[in-house]
Design a protein that fits this description.
single chain, alpha/beta, 6 helices
Length: about 230
């Protein structure tokens, strides 16, 4: 099995190299960069599954770097590792959906490795769900958001919305992929609000998976339940 790839970004070489040694021992393929611009250059040839970045760096903050990586590598897990002095600024970035998690310095080696491996298991599920949109028609794209509580796949289109039938079909496909995955779907919530149809799947743990699709606001919600059109 191909090793997961991690890009570590920290302007303090001893910290970057300590993380590199730790993760290499755990079987990860690891590259390091000492500032944001160097990290962006590495992305030309190195496509990380995880980006672990310091927050306060000269030239480009970790938040600014992760915003740019979000656009170019939407499935990469984006984490900030920093001291609590930066906590307020990091929280603002989390609220903007740019960072997956804040990890404090100093870190616990075992806890960090366990957490990263857990995130990667869920990330593989999200990669499967995202795959159909890689070759989507012009004007259709998907955005991945991840946090401790949920993973969200937001479908965006140039048109204001999908036809209701197409929206339901996407949600059925989403649920079907989960059923074939190692995650166990124990329940779900289908909801329509603000011109969006969403399906939240509970998978028997702290993580939830969510698909959001824009739909017309004039159609009746009673027609949007999976299977309702066949009743």
């Amino acid at each position: 099995m191909e090793a997961f790839r991690v890009l570590i970004v920290d302007d303090e070489p001893p910290i970057a190299r300590a993380l590199q040694r730790l993760l290499k021992r755990e079987g990860f393929e690891v590259q390091i960069a000492f500032n944001g611009n160097e990290a962006l250059e590495r992305l030309g040839e190195f496509h990380p599954d995880i980006v672990l970045s310091d927050f306060r760096m000269p030239g480009m903050t970790g938040s600014e770097l992760l915003q740019r990586i979000k656009r170019s590598h939407p499935l990469a897990l984006r984490l900030i590792i920093s001291g609590y002095a930066d906590f307020k600024s990091v929280v603002a970035s989390v609220n903007e959906g740019e960072i997956c998690r804040f990890i404090s310095k100093p870190w616990d080696d075992a806890e960090l490795v366990t957490y990263l491996k857990g995130l990667l298991r869920h990330r593989e599920t999200m990669a499967s769900l995202y795959a159909p949109f890689r070759e989507a028609p012009l004007g259709v794209n998907a955005e991945v958001g991840m946090s401790e509580a949920s993973m969200v796949l937001k479908v965006q289109v140039a048109d204001p919305s999908f036809p209701a039938e197409q929206a339901v079909s996407l949600i059925e496909r989403f649920a079907g992929l989960l059923a074939n995955d190692s995650l166990k779907v124990v329940g779900g919530l289908l909801e329509r609000y603000g011109g969006r149809l969403s399906f939240m799947a509970d998978v028997g743990g702290p993580q939830r998976l969510k698909l959001e699709v824009p739909v017309p606001t004039v159609e009746s919600t009673t027609d949007l339940r999976p299977g309702a059109r066949d009743a």
